[in-house]
Design brief:
The protein is mainly alpha-helical and about 140 residues long. The longest helix has about 40 residues. α1 packs antiparallel against α2.
Length: about 140
């Protein structure tokens, strides 16, 4: 009979979960930032299907790029925390902040889409917090 230390077993799963969520956030961040760059390129080329006003397209591009950058930062912090739990405090804070913003968004505009948009930040926060606890 093989005895498994449950603590290290769960710690490994939490670190793996954080790595997976972080990689997904980096990929999503790259796609979102790329969509912003594509929108800017289409507008610059004179494509009329993109938007009618410069201000609206500019705001859209800035928000796309900002959201993409935040996803990439979130993923990088999560990967850093998964590699070294001693450096996980920033990932926990970041995860709590993104979760709070997602819940606020859900509270201001309740919908199924907003509910689903809370899942990734919730998982990220749970994994980061548990990785942080495992460092002891």
């Amino acid at each position: 009979m093989v005895l498994i230390n449950r603590g290290s077993y769960m710690e490994g799963h939490m670190r793996t979960g954080l790595k997976i969520i972080s990689i997904l956030q980096i990929i999503a961040g790259l796609f979102v930032a790329g969509a912003g760059a594509l929108t800017a390129a289409l507008f610059a080329s004179g494509d009329t299907s993109v938007g009618s006003t410069v201000e609206m397209v500019t705001l859209s591009v800035v928000l796309f790029v900002l959201e993409g950058a935040l996803g990439i930062i979130s993923g990088a912090l999560g990967l850093r925390a998964a590699r070294n739990p001693e450096k996980s405090m920033l990932a926990v804070i970041w995860g709590g902040l993104t979760l709070a913003l997602s819940v606020f968004s859900l509270a201001t505009e309740p919908s199924v889409q907003q509910l689903f948009s809370c899942i990734i930040p919730l998982l990220y926060f749970i994994f980061a917090r548990n990785v942080r606890k495992s460092r002891k």
